[in-house]
Amino acid sequence: MTNTQSDFWLPFWLDLHRLYHINTTKYPTFTTFSKALIKFASLGYQLTLIDGQYVKAWSEINQDPLQPLKQLPGRKPQWYQRYIDQNTVGDNRHLLKPIVIDKAILPSHKPPHISPEYYFRPKSEWIVYWHAPSSSALFGRTIEQKNDPFSKSISFIEHWIHNPPSTFSIYGSPKKYPSILSPCPGCNLHTPFHRDTRPNCVFIAPTLHLHSIKTQKKDRTFLDNLPRIPYKKCLFLSQPINTLKVLIYNIYTHSIGIPDTIPSSTPLPTIHPHNINTLPNNSPLITRLLLGCSSSIYKLISLSSRIYDRTQFTFYTDGSVFNLGTPQSLSGSRWVETTDPNNLLTFNSRLTQHISSTHAEVMAILTALIICPHSSLINVYTDSSSCIHTFNKILNPLIGTRKLQKIPNHLIWLGIKYIISFNHLNVILHKVKAHSNILYNDMADNLAKSGTQLPHTLYINFKNLPRQNATLTWLNLGPIERPTRKWAKDIISCR
Known about the structure:
Blueprint: H1 2-8, H2 16-20, H3 32-40, H4 43-47, H5 58-61, H6 78-87, E1 88-89, E2 94-95, E3 119-120, E4 126-131, E5 136-146, E6 154-161, E7 180-183, E8 202-206, E9 211-213, H7 220-224, E10 235-236, H8 241-256, H9 283-289, E11 290-292, H10 294-306, E12 312-322, E13 330-337, E14 345-351, H11 357-369, E15 377-382, H12 385-394, H13 401-405, H14 410-423, E16 426-431, H15 439-451, E17 458-460, H16 484-493
Parallel strand pairs: 12-15, 15-16
Antiparallel strand pairs: 1-2, 3-5, 4-5, 4-9, 5-6, 6-7, 6-8, 7-10, 11-17, 12-13, 13-14
């Protein structure tokens, strides 16, 4: 145990090469140390901002998970400073090799505090707001909140713009510029504000749509390293401008449920003109419950429109996992609909979070049920006895919410339960023996392996699950779909 601890807490940055070449004789698979290394491989996501272009300041990393405004004790470690020196450039800590973000990083929304007073003037409250009509991020300082008890709170904000001076060209590319803001001299967003005539430009926004941001202190060391600034009034933000733009846009899209852009290679759903008035619309349900790979989402919408006039379905589902327990682990799910042997329907998807064979199998069942029309009779053939047992368990009307939350992959199971209830489906699960030369089951197994090679990942949107008032997440990387106590044991053992 002593050797394990001394090897894990290294005084230098642990690179991925060492992670991918773990000595399995010294650290067997699934030991505590191996799990720690696997989790440590994704530490780059915890160090970088949401866009993967910049490294967080140590004050943003060293936060108490239970009290985000409180810093953990201890000084800044040497490995962090060495990582900054070797992998970043400029005062913004811009990465020399940006990290490709392939995980569902959910933005952490921090709206301003809403006061119980009707008129409230906060001090030094800086925000960023996504202005949808102009498709741009607006920065500013809150002048006043108007908190009508019979309507939503709105804020009057002095508009500040990012207009770096020409002297910043010494930093090189614009991404390396300090995040400077200066007052807007006036634009078409200006709204007359009679309670304070000093600002040149004021705009209005709902308070809950704003995101609070931090400014950088103007100490002597910081100011001495800056070139000449021609503005009378200016301030510097603690995060890069591009990162804040990405952050507020993601907050906006997550809040209203906008799907990704439709790929040009993905065919749109085919609608028959003579049945257009009776066509069941499953696309809102699909886009509401699924996130991530846009091509997979629109393929489900297309399949849903092709089977709108049918009431009986037979699915063979399967999931596939490769390199389980290693940083290179991959997972895919797939199903085949076999009611019409001459016109087989197939679907596959890639999964990355909480990788397991059961997780892939459950996701295959969910994507199969979500395309079925109202009041359909569905037979699902699976080689997972665990899925059949859990399926019968969640449909028990006497099961409580607490027991549901203890089921592994409970968010996907809650989605399946909601789909069955919403569309009044009659679903029966059947057990088939794995690798038993059953044609369609072997076909689903082979196709599931191809799902691991897809470029993008499919996720369930847990925010739109009914009666799910709260969902635990970890470092904004995604929801926790395991029983909390069992999950916490692994996290504690890795600290």
